[in-house]
Design brief:
alpha+beta, 2 domains, three-stranded antiparallel sheet
Length: 97
């Protein structure tokens, strides 16, 4: 969230309030603070990945892949891991948010 600094200048305070009202929804969107994990080797079947967010993710996407495979999330989101099931072996870069 955008901090608002106290000041005697009322115009500055008004500007800060307006900026915060416009930017806080963008800054609060989880996708604005993603984490990319590179070089994840997937095998056929379920793969448990430590996503390192410390909170339950709200989404993920693959930013690089070296094989023509199908990958899907096969377990509910949780604060520690992401379970992806792959139709074959592949190495991916994964972005979680």
């Amino acid at each position: 969230m955008l901090p608002i600094f106290k000041d005697d200048n009322k115009n500055l305070m008004l500007l800060q309030t307006q900026w915060a009202s416009q930017l806080n929804s963008v800054l609060g969107n989880p996708i604005t603070n993603p984490l990319t994990i590179k070089g994840i080797a997937l095998t056929t079947g379920a793969n448990v990945i430590n996503h390192k967010l410390g909170i339950s993710p709200v989404g993920w996407f693959i930013t690089d892949i070296n094989a023509a495979v199908t990958i899907y999330r096969s377990q509910p989101f949780n604060p520690l891991t992401l379970t992806l099931t792959s139709s074959g072996a592949a190495t991916i870069n994964l972005t979680v948010f």
